[in-house]
Amino acid sequence: MAHFDLHEQEQLSNLKYFWQKGGKYIVGLVVVAIVAYMVNVGWNMYKNNQSSAAAEIYTQFTEVAAGGHDLDKMLKFTQELQSKYAVTEYSSMASMQSAEAAWKEHKLDIAANLLNWLIDNSKDQGLVNVARVRIADILIDEQKFDKALKQLQQPHDSAFDVIYYMKRGDLYVAKGDLNRARDAYKEALQKAGQDSNVAQEVQLRLDVLGGN
Description:
Largest sheet: none
Low-confidence stretches: 21-46
Strand content: under 5%
Number of strands: 0
Structural class: mainly alpha
CATH superfamily: Tetratricopeptide repeat domain
CATH topology: Serine Threonine Protein Phosphatase 5, Tetratricopeptide repeat
Radius of gyration: 30 Å
Number of helices: 9
CATH architecture: Alpha Horseshoe
Shape: elongated
Number of domains: 1
């Protein structure tokens, strides 16, 4: 039997006391750490599986879209992506493309619903910025000018300033407020900077309005 002096016995007693009081706590921390790690691994695997499954559906969607814009089939795939794979970028892209197809068929309510879903669910701020402009177009056509302006006043990336101001100009033209339309177009022209193509398009609008 091993022989321990008083100092060693005291250390052993302290270790036993520490284990009795804190051992379960340490085990708990280890278990929590392991669970957290497994959850993280599982979540990453889940996201990868989600993305792969969504990609397959989106591939079918693009085939339909490229084959003549069968809106009903496009909407079917889009709704499946929205309901099952809303967190993926594929659901946002399908929503935008389906909204455009619905717009071309003058089904404005469907287009607006798709765009509103995109705004509420997409993490792609670029697509959200475009969706707001598209909704503003629909609202301008419906002469819902206040709602359209509200969309165009929402925070957005500075890269979209020119299109937002240009669309405000279009709104004021439709509303018959030509002075505000000129101001909006002038602001858009300033935001266009060195982009000659965009600047030319804005200048054309100003030339049509005439005046200073």
